[in-house]
Amino acid sequence: MDPLAELNERLVACRRCPRLVSWREQVAARPRAAFAGEEYWGRPVPGFGDPAARLLVVGLAPAAHGANRTGRMFTGDRSGDWLYRALHEAGFADRAESRHRGDGLRLTDAYITAPVRCPPPANRPTAAERGNCRHWLAEEYRHLLRVQVIVALGAVAYEEVLRLLADGGAAVPRPRPRFAHGLTVETEGPVVVCSYHPSQQNTFTGRLTRPMLDDVFATARARLRPLGYDGPGQ
């Protein structure tokens, strides 16, 4: 079996965090009126995209009525509307929207994941829950052999990405630069590019605009090296 497929088979059966298991299943059992009649995924959500990706996009966690409903990262909610439009604009997605995991959307040279795989109440996973889930991201990253650039969507993603790289033996700056939208951090491994998360809290208030998100992915695109390059990050 493909190593990512085998990983995802184990991941979707995870029940390690009682609070998150209870919440994801409670939400799945009581769909919003807008999704009445739909069968929610209601399990941990695997990563999605091109296994040969040079770009890795890291969010926070599935949305309760987004990926927890559809079973695919950033699919079926407004955060996903923003993200997939930006990925399409930058040439990483073959369409600008994603509604359900069977809609045929394809990513090229990009892979999307998160450090927490179940929706947390109020979008706030505890430190223990982040710790419980961390090994999934680490194992996933080991199978994504061509990653050169990581886009971190939000401060939590940024923290987890730097931890991931450091734990894997790649030197990261000390002290670690404080998270900021548009920040680019050089490491011995992939370049890390930071963005505010495309949550409604950020997009509705104007803290994150479409040009700001497009600039992040334009930067990421510009930092990709040709395949076959054998320098850092390979």
Structure description:
Residues 230-234 have low confidence and may be disordered. Helix 1 (3-11) runs antiparallel to helix 5 (127-143) and helix 4 (78-89) packs across helix 8. By secondary structure, this protein is of the alpha/beta class. It has helices at 3-11, 18-29, 67-70, 78-89, 127-143, 155-167, 200-203, 210-223; strands spanning 48-49, 55-58, 110-113, 149-153, 184-185, 191-195. The chain has a six-stranded mixed β-sheet with strand order 1-3-2-4-6-5, sandwiched between helices. The chain has one domain: Uracil-DNA Glycosylase, subunit E (3-Layer(aba) Sandwich), CATH 3.40.470. The protein is globular and about 45 Å long. Helices cover 36% and strands 9% of the residues. The longest helix is centred in the middle third of the chain and has 17 residues, at 127-143. It contains eight helices and six strands, in the order ααββααβαβαββαα.
Low-confidence stretches: 230-234
CATH class: Alpha Beta
Query: What's the structural domain tally?
Result: 1
Q: Which structural class do the helices and strands define?
A: alpha/beta
- Euclidean distance between termini CA atoms: 24 Å
Put simply, the count of helices is 8
Query: What is the fold named in CATH at topology level?
Result: Uracil-DNA Glycosylase, subunit E
| Rg measurement, Å | 17 Å
Strand order in the sheet with the most strands: 1-3-2-4-6-5
- Biggest β-sheet strands, sense, barrel: 6 strands, mixed
